[in-house]
Amino acid sequence: MLLVDDDPAVAKVLGALLSQAGLTTHAARDGKEALAMLERKPVDVVVSDVRMPGMDGMQLLNEVAKGWPDVPVILLTAHGTVPLAVEAMKAGAADFVLKPFDREEILFTIRKALLRAQGEAAHEPLRTPSAFVGGSQKMAEAQALLAKAATGMATVLLRGESGTGKELAAKAVHDGSPRHAGPFVKLHCAALPDTLLESELFGYEKGAFTGAATRKPGRVELAHGGTLFLDEVGDISPAVQVKLLRVIQERELERLGGTQTVKVDVRFVAATHQPLEDLVKAGRFREDLFYRLNVVPLWLPALRERPEDIEPLARHFLDVHARTNGKPPFTLTADGLAVIQAQPWPGNVRQLQNFLERLVVLSDGQTLTGEDVSRELARQPGLSAPVLTPSLGTTALPATSSAQPAGAESGRTLESQRKDTERQAMVDALKRAGDNRTLAARLLGISRRTLYNKLEEHGLV
């Protein structure tokens, strides 16, 4: 935990509390010191005061979102209001807690943020501008339907495989709607267990459960006047489905532990990669909720269904990541593009984007050839470096002799070779990232926690 507060007494008390709960804490006196510490130390959650001299908590939140998008930020404030909460959630805060805080409440909030971070590490949203890239017919049709759907109030259900840009599509619906000035609130339903998901959606009253020291509005209430995006809605349990159905039908809710009915003006946009029709038949998803969500169904095409978009996407991501990493523009040669286009990209646009970001950071020059792309592909699990023909202007990769299996000379097993390759990949990534472990994890396409575990496993700590 990274604790950021200009009051040393608060940081000391909170640090002792979290240490007693088995959490490791680091303290920073202001936003600038916090950013420097994030560069040097592994941090899972940032807990920051809102009002601080120099860089305040909201500014720190924005900087953390840019440099460490997978690190949740919890804001502390002695001046809590619903408008401030809405502003914080719009800016990407994981949660907010009022001062003076209760011991159980702050521990409950931090554990919730940790759970959410673990769930979203493998579901990192696409970091692109709020416009789709690509001119294929399938993408043009999808954008046209999104534009039509945006103008109304009807609930939109976004369908498609993981990595196709459903969150990007949800934001496009919000931005193109009459309520674009209102909040756009996101909730990844698969990242939280039922008890936390219910409190996140509907909020709770003081004393509703252990740790509920104050009343707190839920995501539905925070999205009043705007849009609530429910990602992976197919993972909601039947018990929560019943309560969500009522909110969508009646536009009203009751906070946990409360009896007062709260009216809300919210537009719902949901997304899932699961076949909801099959879940309905199996009795795992309510049929009436499915029809409530499926008012305007929109399918986002997989990348393999629009291969003509790979080139503009690749060049777009190269430009974006070159600027982000402070590098001059990159040139992608024809044979380099051919290797990229030959890949199946089962993880869709997200996988392509992450691969190109690694390619930018690990590259020594500004010209990316087929050999450069193939070398990086060979380091990535789930991707294959194709044997390139001389017509592509690159050197064909050597084939393994059929008479002598690879590694047979030394009697090494496949598992030992895998471990050696894994260890070398981490060494290379750390070297390229200047020992910045957060960046190294992003280059390898894994979460920071997985990287730390692997480093310990291979004796690289």
Number of helices: 19
- Low-confidence runs of at least 5 consecutive residues: 121-130, 387-410
What is the level 1 CATH name of the largest domain?
Alpha Beta
Strand content: 5-15%
- The percent of residues in helical segments reads 40-55%
Q: In order across it, which strands form the biggest sheet?
A: 2-1-3-4-5
Global geometry: globular
CATH topology of the largest domain: Rossmann fold
Estimate the mean pLDDT confidence: 82
How far from one another are the termini?
19 Å
Please render the helix and strand layout as text.
Blueprint: E1 2-4, H1 8-20, E2 26-28, H2 31-40, E3 46-49, H3 57-67, E4 73-77, H4 82-90, E5 95-98, H5 103-121, H6 137-150, E6 156-159, H7 166-175, E7 184-188, H8 194-202, H9 219-222, E8 227-231, H10 238-250, E9 252-254, E10 261-263, E11 267-272, H11 276-281, H12 287-293, E12 296-299, H13 310-324, E13 331-332, H14 334-341, H15 348-362, E14 367-368, H16 370-379, H17 414-432, H18 437-444, H19 448-457
Parallel strand pairs: 1-2, 1-3, 3-4, 4-5, 6-11, 6-12, 7-8, 8-11, 13-14
Antiparallel strand pairs: 9-10
Helix pairs in contact: 2-3, 6-7, 10-12, 13-15, 14-16, 17-18, 18-19
